[in-house]
Design a protein that fits this description.
CATH topology of one domain: Alpha-Beta Plaits
Structural class: alpha+beta
Helix content: 25-40%
Strand content: 25-35%
CATH class of one domain: Alpha Beta
Shape: globular
Distance between the termini: 24 Å
Largest sheet: 5 strands, mixed
Radius of gyration: 15 Å
CATH architecture of one domain: 2-Layer Sandwich
Number of strands: 5
């Protein structure tokens, strides 16, 4: 998997002073679209997200998108507005959103595509490296949702 070496404008020595916003959503791919459309979404994310300080994870399987987006609140909300108007998917549902002082769960991922079969492994890897209670709790919640489905 590709990781980004982009440095974000967060204070490096004062994590207690930085609010990080995240949104988790799922949506359904519109009929008639295919993997080239998913590849286009990922390519756009790789170009835009590092500039905006956005990191996260995109999972796609069974024509369902599941995405975790984290970064500065205004940039994340602007991105969500774009996603909501994107005609490549429909039936978008926000599963959670939060703003808190915490570490990034996917600090080196500008937005990586992970297959639905691999999402459990990715979340477990993130859980092993997470240090903050909020990150650990969020990852455990996501893992529980994945295991139920």
């Amino acid at each position: 998997m590709r990781t980004s070496s982009v440095k974000y404008d967060e204070p490096q020595n004062t994590p207690d002073d930085y609010l990080l916003f995240n949104i988790v959503y799922c949506s359904q791919m519109r009929p008639g679209l295919g993997l080239t459309d998913v590849d286009a979404i990922v390519a756009t994310s790789h170009r835009r997200n590092p500039i905006l300080g956005i990191t996260g994870l995109l999972t796609f399987g069974s024509e369902i998108f599941f995405q975790w987006i984290e970064g500065p609140k205004l940039e994340v909300l602007d991105l969500i507005k774009l996603i909501e108007t994107d005609n490549r998917h429909e039936n978008m549902v926000i599963l959670s959103s939060d703003e808190e002082v915490r570490e990034r769960i996917f600090p080196n991922w500008d937005m990586e595509l992970v297959s639905a079969d691999d999402i459990k492994e990715v979340l477990n890897d993130a859980l092993r490296t997470a240090r903050e209670r909020g990150s650990i709790d969020a990852l455990k919640l996501l893992l529980a949702k994945v295991e139920r489905h």
